[in-house]
């Protein structure tokens, strides 16, 4: 669950044209406006404008620090807690965290899901966790799924992110049901491309939303859905077993079995990674696919969670040599890479010439008992455009196609995650 949040201008434009709230985007400047960007709070990770991804990047930074055994700075945890509204939900970012949330506050299911995972992992935040769980349940759509902006049509990315967060909090997604009696998994699994999908290589993948009634494979949605189907969050415990990912079993049990659906999704990701060792996407202004660093990291985490570290090995090596520029100074990017390293049993302090942990610590309040010196390597191989996950762009197109104009998080989604 990554880091996602690119193409800010396009995404925000798509949403605003539909009369919806601005989408949560990566550490990317928002569309030009007369107002100055908010001042970066002292407890917040990252130096870029947090308007669209403040809570998201903070959550991934704290979760990554905790995963490697560090105790985050109290002011960093307090900043995240201060972003929660009285009803339990989070906006993407609130500059005036000391004031009560207004009726016009634009709540963000993705930010809430990310914060929930971080706060649950840190421990000692039971009241905040319970409030976040209750809020997410309160904005579940009748079909069992969730949207980035509550009240909008469900999509796979937000549904998967919420399911993962609820599972981490100890909920059973199959028992989390809407007022219409639809479970969270009933809201997610219809987005999977099944055994009749063409081309056959897309079978097992998840779509963001239908476009003109058709499901289109989306790598980011697929990675998020893999974790959700397995009932896992972004902080994956390294598996003691390792098998190769297999294609969706047909005839498929996925329609009724979240775990089977997740394994089929993992099979799609493994096959997609085989060609180049990484995922690709077409970014704005480009006519050829470029490396997609954020979704590649998400895919590694998803494959490791499914017990397929061998299938993720090539992509992990590619990330070691091609993620330095993409993640430089990015709390969400660095946090996601740390989580990918952790999930695969890799040392995040020696990741392709970079100490990811020191680099992350240097972007925000230092964890207790550590220094903030970082060893990094800039690589000419890194292309900023290739490092940005574009499911936001795909989401914008999909949203426009069905007339809703709603984009999702993310993965993460995640600055470039």
TrEMBL record:
Gene3D superfamilies, alphabetized: 1.50.10.20
Keyword entries, A-Z: Membrane, Metal-binding, Signal, Transmembrane, Transmembrane helix
Ranges where the Squalene cyclase C-terminal domain occurs: 112-154
Chain segments carrying region Disordered: 363-384
Single GO MF descriptor: metal ion binding
Signal sequence, renumbered to the chain: 1-26
Pfam families for this protein: SQHop_cyclase_C
TM spans (from-to): 389-408
Lineage, broadest ranks: Bacteria, Bacillati, Actinomycetota, Actinomycetes, Kitasatosporales
Superkingdom of source: Bacteria
Name by which UniProt lists this protein: Squalene cyclase C-terminal domain-containing protein
Keyword Metal-binding: yes
């Amino acid at each position: 669950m990554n880091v996602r949040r690119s193409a800010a201008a396009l995404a925000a434009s798509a949403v605003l044209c539909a009369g919806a709230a601005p989408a949560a985007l990566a550490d990317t400047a928002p569309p030009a406006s007369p107002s100055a960007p908010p001042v970066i709070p002292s407890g917040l990770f990252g130096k870029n404008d947090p308007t669209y991804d403040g809570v998201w990047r903070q959550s991934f930074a704290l979760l990554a620090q905790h995963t490697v055994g560090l105790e985050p700075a109290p002011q960093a945890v307090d900043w995240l807690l201060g972003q929660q509204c009285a009803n339990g939900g989070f906006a993407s970012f609130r500059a005036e965290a000391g004031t009560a949330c207004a009726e016009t506050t634009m709540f963000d299911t993705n930010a809430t899901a990310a914060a929930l995972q971080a706060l649950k992992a840190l421990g000692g935040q039971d009241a905040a966790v319970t409030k976040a769980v209750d809020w997410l349940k309160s904005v579940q759509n009748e079909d069992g799924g969730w949207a980035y902006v509550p009240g909008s049509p469900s999509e796979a990315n937000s549904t998967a992110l919420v399911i993962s967060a609820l599972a981490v909090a100890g909920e059973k997604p199959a028992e989390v049901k809407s007022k219409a009696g639809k479970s969270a998994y009933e809201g997610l699994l219809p987005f999977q491309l099944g055994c009749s999908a063409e081309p056959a290589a897309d079978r097992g993948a998840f779509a963001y939303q239908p476009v003109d009634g058709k499901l289109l494979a989306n790598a980011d949605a697929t990675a998020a859905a893999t974790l959700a189907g397995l009932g896992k969050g972004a902080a994956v415990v390294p598996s003691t077993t390792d098998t190769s990912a297999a294609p969706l079993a047909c005839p498929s049990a996925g329609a009724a079995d979240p775990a089977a659906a997740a394994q089929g999704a993992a099979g799609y990701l493994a096959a997609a990674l085989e060609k180049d060792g990484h995922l690709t996407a077409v970014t704005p202004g480009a006519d050829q696919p470029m490396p997609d660093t954020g979704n590649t990291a998400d895919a590694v985490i998803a494959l490791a969670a499914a017990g397929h570290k061998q299938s993720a090995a090539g992509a992990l090596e590619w990330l070691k040599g091609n993620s330095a520029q993409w993640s430089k100074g990015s709390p969400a990017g660095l946090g996601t890479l740390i989580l990918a390293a952790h999930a695969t049993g890799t040392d995040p302090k020696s990741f392709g010439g970079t100490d990811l942990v020191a680099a992350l610590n240097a972007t925000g309040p230092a964890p207790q008992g550590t220094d903030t010196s970082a060893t990094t390597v800039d690589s000419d191989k890194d292309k900023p455009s290739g490092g940005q996950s574009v499911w936001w762009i795909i989401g914008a197109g999909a949203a426009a196609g069905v007339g809703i104009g709603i984009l999702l998080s993310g993965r993460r989604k995640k600055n470039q995650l």
